Amino acid sequence: MNDDRLRLLLRETPVPGAGEAECRGLRVVSRAYDERRPAPRPLLPRLALALAAAALLAAVVLSPAGAAVRDWIGDVFAAGVPNAEPALTDVPGGGRLLVNSPQGPWVVQPDGSRRLLGRYSDASWSPHGLFVAAAARDTLSAVEPDGTPRWSISAKGRVSDPRWSPSGFRIAYRAGHALRVVAADGTGDHRIARSTAVAPAWSPLGQPQLAYVDGRGQVRIAASESGRGLGTAKSLPGIVKLQWGEGGTVLLEASRRAVQVRPLRAGTPAQGIGFGRPRWLALPVRATVRDAAFSPRGTTVAVLLAERWHGGARSMVWLFGRNGTHQLLTVPGRLSELAFSPNGERLLVAWPEADQWLFLPAGRGEGRAIGGISEAFSPGTDAAGFPRVAGWCCAAVRRPEG
Q1: SS3 for 89?
Q2: Hey, which residues does 151 pair with through a beta bridge?
């Protein structure tokens, strides 16, 4: 028997038990699909069902006859959580959302009502949610949540990544590649650095200290008024995000391949701030980091990961805390971003392919899946124009500084 004949026989010979396995798989998944109810149900049991289907997919992939089953499972489960709530009628966990869309930023109230602020390309909350810092081409504006503009300034370059300081007195932003700071009343605009690679991050202690990454790949902490350097260290290669945590004692650095937490040592004004040895978070070898964030309390890091899986893709959300590592979620397809609620008890996870937001408990509790997100914020757009969460803010407090 020649080699070609042998290969033909091996390819055409059915795998023992493949037909029975396929029938059992079809019955299990079909029953789960038929028994769905229109009333909303807790999110986590439905995700467990999706994971059971994914496990079935891993078994069926061994059989050539399983191609139709793989396609059917993908149609049912890779499209999102079945029976997700059809519209955002409230913000699970409370608070207000700021959402950037192709049409501009939206403010979402706790009851789900929303308002489009205008034709801005980027926005962020003031610390108490009284104002929004909004960017449009070469203009930075302070806008009230009802869309009323308070002031605007022009910059030499496209404005992006506005960030309001925790004290409410300053706004940092990028103008082209430069990093600048302006007072909350629109006065005193000045440059801090000629070049910066990622969005700046304010110290959560309320002090006028700003962390940024310069054009040479150095993490720097500077006094926001004078621009005087207080500390510097080599950044994580390919860094895409920088954030303070744990009460201003550490910095989180994230790239597409790694996440690290670097301790900070505060000294005298003359000594500045010292950078300690970074601690790397243990991530899967083949995974790509899509997003990472400290919880508002600053003790837990949530990391959104994506990796190739059985010819497709899957996404995972992991929590790294003082009590160890916890895998919160695994789903087929690609998730795009995550955001903590103001109290740190929930995570909003975006699923563009499913047109859904997942509101997951960071601890105990039930999750919720809400669909129709694109239509709510960007009518007529596809997943490429899926809205981005720019902030999840506390209830407004009437304080003059913002």
Answers
A1: coil
A2: 142
**pLDDT string in tens for the chain (402-residue length):** 544 444 433 433 444 444 454 444 434 334 443 444 444 444 444 444 444 444 433 332 322 322 332 332 343 345 688 889 999 999 998 999 999 999 999 999 999 999 999 999 999 999 999 999 999 999 999 999 999 999 999 999 999 999 999 999 999 999 999 999 999 999 999 999 999 999 999 999 878 999 999 999 999 999 999 999 999 999 999 999 999 998 899 999 999 999 999 999 986 565 689 999 999 999 998 999 999 999 998 789 999 999 998 888 899 999 999 889 999 999 988 999 999 999 999 999 999 999 999 999 987 778 999 999 999 998 665 555 899 999 999 844 444 444
The DSSP-derived string for 342-383 is: TTSSEEEEEEGGGTEEEEEESSSS--EEEE-HHHHHSTT--G
Q: Which amino acid is at 322?
A: R
Are the CB atoms for 198 and 214 separated by under 8 Å? no
The residues, ordered by sequence, that sit 6+ positions from 198 with a Cβ below 8 Å of its Cβ are 161, 212, 213, 239, 240, 241, 242
Under 8 Å between Cβ of 348 and 356: no
Q: How many residues does the chain have?
A: 402
Are 242 and 219 within 8 A, CB to CB? yes
**Residue 57 vs residues 157, 309, 330, 354: alpha-carbon distances, Å:** 50, 11, 15, 19
What is the secondary structure of 219-259 as a DSSP string?
EEEEETTT--EEEEEEPPTT--EEEEEGGGTEEEEE-SS-E
Query: Taking the model in full, what pTM does it have?
Result: 0.78
Strands 301-309 and 312-321: antiparallel
Sheet holding 114-116, edge to edge: 114-116, 104-108, 96-101, 388-393
> What region does 140 belong to: left with phi over 0, alpha with psi -120 to 50, or beta?
beta
Can you tell me the distance from the alpha carbon of 301 to that of 350, in angstroms, rounded to the nearest whole number? 17
Q: What is the DSSP secondary-structure string of 117-131? A: --S-SEEEE-TTSS-
CA distance readout (Å), 243 to 94, 200, 204, 353? 23, 8, 10, 28
The domains of the chain are located at 3-77, 96-393
Cβ-based burial of 300 (10 A; exposed 0-12, middle 13-18, buried ≥19):
buried
Q: Which CATH number fits domain 96-393: 3.40.630.10, 3.60.15.10, 2.130.10.10, 1.20.210.10?
A: 2.130.10.10
